[in-house]
User: Fold this.
Amino acid sequence: MPGFLRKDLARWLISLNILALLASVFPWTLGKQADSLTPAPVGIHPEWYFMSPFEMLKILGNWLPGEAGEIAGLLLFTIGIVLWILIPFYDVKNDGGRRARIWFAIGLTHPEATSTLIHNFVFGWAIEWVFFMVELTTIAVYYYTWNRVDPKLHLTVGWIYSVASVCTLIIINGILTFMLTPGDTWIAVAGTGHEASKFWNAFFNPTYWPSLLLRTGVCTSLAGIWR
Assistant:
């Protein structure tokens, strides 16, 4: 039996190598060869899990035409991937010796709920990511240039960080409150495939303004304490 198995595996290996060689030397095309440099067809869009980066690239392309927008988008995505890879290093243990649970909880998020949030708030997520990257950049510049640059320039960086933080709060608050109170208008079209058409109804849901006022008040109070 072992000898038969070895002979059979050898025959299969030789056959597959011959097939791979023939496919490489005499490739059988499925149609006209695609040109990767031609523009994408009008109206094409990627799968849902790539919709947020897709929308961000479109926004950056309008702000920075040409290759500059593409390079800026690729840099943002690369930074995001690097930060995600470094999660185990900055998800530090607490005083009790256990690892923090926030990233573990995010990793176990309900897939269907995550899909709903992505489908319904594609444009919102794209904008939020832009402001979030501005936050990360300006807070790093603000911290590492303390007493090293002109005070007016340093204050300008701080104001940019503050504005980006407020914009992030305004956008993410709509998504967070939607998870609690999606509203009757959105629920009426849920499951029909037209949920994204009720973007603004879902965004400005019944608890949006109360939550925004509460969060703004809490943030202002905390800023006053640290001030």
